[in-house]
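Let's do one together. I've listed all components of the complex below, 574 residues spread over two lines.
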Amino acid sequence: MTGFWPILKRELFALFVTPLAWVVITGFLFIQGMHFYLVMSHYAVSMELGADAGPMQLFFGQTVFLYLPLLLLCPVLTMRLFAEERRSGTIEALLTAPVTTPAVVFGKYFAVLAVYLVMWLPTLLYVKIVSGTGQVDGQVVAASYLAVVAVGSGYLAIGTMTSALTKSQLSAAILSAVTIIALFILGIGEYVLPEGSGKELCAYLSVWSQMNDFSRGIVDSRRLWLDLTIIVVPLFVTVRAVEAWRQEL
Amino acid sequence: MAMIEVEDLHKRYGPVHALRGISFGVDRGVLTGFLGPNGAGKSTTLRILAGFLGATAGRVRVAGFDLRTHRLEAARNIGYMPETSPLYPEMKIEEYLRFRAELKGVSRSKRTEEVGRACELTRIADRRRMLIRHQSKGYRQRVGLADALLGRPPLIILDEPTAGFDPNQVQQVRTLLDDLRAEHTIFLSTHILSEVEATCEEAVVIHEGRVVASGSIEALRKRKRAGVVEVTFHRGEGALRDEELSAWLTQSEAIAAAGRRRGDNGLETWRVTLGPGVDEDAVETLVAALVRAGAGIRAVEPLAVSLEEVFADLTGATPEDEDEA
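Okay, and this is what the predicted structure of the assembly comes out as:
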């Protein structure tokens, strides 16, 4: 992994200086702030609390506002990773340095992942606010964040891959958004398909179901294996794609 | 020991056969020019040497490491400046060079010193805190050059190092190369022949993906030394007119062309181009022909041929074409 740290640091620098990271984080927190406000105002008027339907469960598992920004912000975060380097030609200087291809790919990937984590960090405040008004189940919160990180890591891996597959940032963003949205829509199959293997497959792939389970504290390892697959496969394809440029540029 | 060894290197881009089996070597400590018209395959070759591109076939060893199996080890021995000097515009020059130094494995304690030295050598020290975005093409090129020097690699590969420089800056680069040659092997590509003549000891000439010549600059120049001579002679009363004399001389296969350069009917100097593939014998033929035409020969002087002409001859282009390219 020669070269991993300098590449990670430079990517973080680029993300925060350009200032893509700030824009994404601000956009995300604005939407999540609204989302949290809606959740809280809902509970302010409706006093009925189910056993597994507290504000944190609702926030993480039962509204679409959690996914919508991710479907768009993850592609925006990852779009320039490789596409911009290829367009501007800086990839030539990068790949002729004594660095391995996995170091380049992982350095870039972990930089966007770090931004993603920073993006979620302020939402811990919501947990603090909710815990001020009632009891919050620590396990539910931990499981919810685990799911959010696992799902986001997969989306970022897909974005990293599409950025390596095209020279245009815009195409990279569109391609990854389409892929992520397609994955999301597959999950809806769980509710519309007739009983059978198709329905089961859709249920297995459904991010919606995963968030629903995890936000109730149900950590299903099969879901985590799926998430891991969605991280590993695109990153493997990215490494191969970058190596292939050496033959075809 | 050779710093660069290239054997039967091929590169195809789809249907385009960019390199058609080139072989050459560059010895340690020698400043070698890599010459060829645009599109000859120079950048492709350098990109393969730098480990950016893979070869379709053939073998490349850099500093003793086979690029196919030991790319990383080879890369540690190379400082490479790509043709366009692509840089990250959002970084300051110093930030960029520190990043590159770290990437090249320069230890933290030596990084400041290394970056400072590279900035001094390339004369960008006064701009090191400025954003790359705000630099002119010439300065960006210098940052690229400074990058290639980081970590003091034994081999420095420069792709068109003076492109984008004004004449003063070109001179500064030549001085820099002179300073560096004691410590590094330098391999630089260019399509400007005067640059090779001014700075390099050896040259490899490539055309349409093939090496058409290689060797010392002196040897390359000699390839055509017998080709053109200037003859100064006295033409007697009632001698042949210019056209007649020209026709008379070019009767022999040994003489390709002849024409008056200066002087009048008293003492005049003609430039004579000898036929292709002939040696010094052609000069005898020329002198004999002139004597038979009644001329009194005063001097015969072989012309030192510029590399431009050798190059044009080797690549089948005219020197003017190359200047425009």
